[in-house]
Amino acid sequence: MCAAKNKSSALELILSDEVQSLLDDFAALIDARVTFFGPDGTRLRRGKEMCNSEFCRHIQSCPGGLAKCMAMDAAKQKEAVDSRDVILYRCHAGAHEIVAPVFLHGKCAGFLMIGQFRVDETHPEKNGELEAFYQQLPRFSNEKQAAITGLFKTLIDYISIRELAVLQSDQLRLDIDRYIARHGHEDIKLPDMAKKLGRSVSSISQFLRRNYDTGFKELLIAHRLHLAESFWKAHPEGTVAEAAFAAGFQDQFYFSRLFRQRKGVTPGEYREQLRISGGEKKEPLPGSSLHPGE
Hints:
It is built from twelve helices and seven strands. With 294 residues, the protein is of the alpha+beta class. Strands 3-2-6-5-4 form a five-stranded antiparallel sheet, sandwiched between helices. It has a two-stranded antiparallel ribbon with strand order 1-7.
């Protein structure tokens, strides 16, 4: 069968629709099957929805053929993860494949595979029964293999850099960070964000504590303090009150207390450090202060 699948993998991988377009273009360019698998081997996307070749269908219809294919795929996927590189190999039936791991934030989120194709004019075992099926496979010269491998690596980098593939947990953190970045200077509350993201308050709180050992309030405070620092870099003569309000704090005294707790210096000391260093703050030595006794 060649029915399309788009299941979630064990790591709940989310693929952008742009990934499908890229796989379609890549498959059309090389006239070979290009497939995105999850880390558990589940097929997620396939370029041009190309089905197995007649060669593969013939091999897998033989006793034990499918098991051998799956075992080799798993072994080569592991090899690719261990080497963190693209692997080109000859399968047990004599055709060739390329597999590459896709890493997101240090985790193996899945694999991209190309195949099957041939590198020889005839089947390496001179197998007459397979020869007709083997001849139907696209043939890649050594030069074309090198070019395809290079493009393959670029494709994977593009998918990762453009965040076209993300883990569901990473997507939620990304959504949280984006929401706070856009609205952190406003009077926002956790229920506001939860409603906007389509999540419950408890699910977001548990997610942040379990995965990042933090909470919404801590993230909001850190973002607002960063806004205050940015304000002073742009306006070195700005007052504490102006920085506090620009960062979303309604109480400048609360802001000053938090700033000293989190940064180890008072807002006034920080601003003075910026002035002395010409706008680039240098972290003070532990216990040091520009104004002892303040």
